[in-house]
Amino acid sequence: MPMKPLEHDHRYGELDQVIRAYLGQRADDVDDKPSAALLSYLRHTWHTRPTALAVAEQQLREYARNPPGRLRLRLGEFYPIPDVGLAESEIQAWLLLLADHIKHSVEAGEVPPPGTPATHWEWHARFPELAQLLGGWFSQDMPEEFSDHDAALRDYAETTEPQLTSRLVGELHELLALDLDETDYVLAVAELGMEVDPPEPYSASGWLALAADRLGGFPTGHGPSGSAESGGAPA
Fold first, then answer.
1. DSSP-H helix ranges across 66-181
2. Rounded Cα gap, residues 184 and 190, in angstroms
């Protein structure tokens, strides 16, 4: 029978985070150089959840040493490694190499310095609430659902827990503090799910600054009964 969520996370939760970091990236790790995907995982995890690195190293080794058979995969009893562009015969050695890189990073204290996210996974891991806003309220359907960008922002503020709105404002300021080139801000909001252009006459960074200001001033997260409502993308 398929694993229950708690069992899955206990056995494979952090391994799953490592593998997700390879979404859209090459698994081109070598003995003396981790891939861009693994560097992104290391950078974000070192600065947010450093104790998870030991868990990742352990889960990678355990999975590599005890690979599942086809039957147990089909029954959902094991975590299925997604396609990372490697032959099946190469997966075991690759997982052990990832574990070695993580172990070396921890034991040598080699902490990637803070920087701009380099992969899709890292953008979403670092700015989760901003990804929720841009992917949920500013998808290509936004013009059909809202009269303008301000109306979408107001809907987010009115239907989302105030604590999450405050977290979002912090993420907006953090993104602006990266001081990227304007073309990089365009790429950043696209990575985070925005599928419509900023309103005229704003650039991407200008609109992000405006959104932070607007969300700091809108009434937030209280329905007619006065109780806070949970966040979520509009239907």
1. 70-74, 88-108, 120-126, 128-137, 142-145, 149-159, 162-177
2. 10
**Taking a C-beta distance cutoff of 8 angstroms, is the pair 136, 233 a contact?**
yes
18 vs 52: CA distance, rounded Å? 11
* Cα–Cα distance for residue pair 223/158, rounded to 1 Å: 8
Distances, alpha carbon 3 to alpha carbons 6, 57, 71, 73, 113, in Å: 8, 21, 14, 11, 37
**Residue 75: which pLDDT band, with cuts at 50, 70 and 90?**
very low
Query: By residue range, what is the domain housing residue 53?
Result: 5-108
pLDDT in tens, 183-208: 999 999 999 999 999 999 999 999 99
Q: What is the pLDDT of residues 127-157, one digit of tens each?
A: 999 999 999 999 999 999 999 999 999 999 9
Do 162 and 82 fall into the same domain? no
Q: Could you tell me the maximum CA-CA distance found in the chain, to the nearest angstrom?
A: 59
Contact yes or no for 171/129 (Cβ under 8 A) = yes
| Within-domain flag for 12 | yes
3-state SS, residue 33: strand
Distance between CA 147 and CA 140 in Å, rounded? 13
Q: Clarify whether residues 138 and 97 are in a common domain.
A: no
Q: Which residue has the tokens 């949970």?
A: 230
CB count in 10 Å sphere of residue 75:
13
- The tokens for 201 are 């006459």
- For the four alpha carbons of 174, 183, 140 and 146, in that order, the dihedral sign comes to positive
Q: Does a structural domain hold residue 167?
A: yes
Q: Return the amino acid letter for 125.
A: A
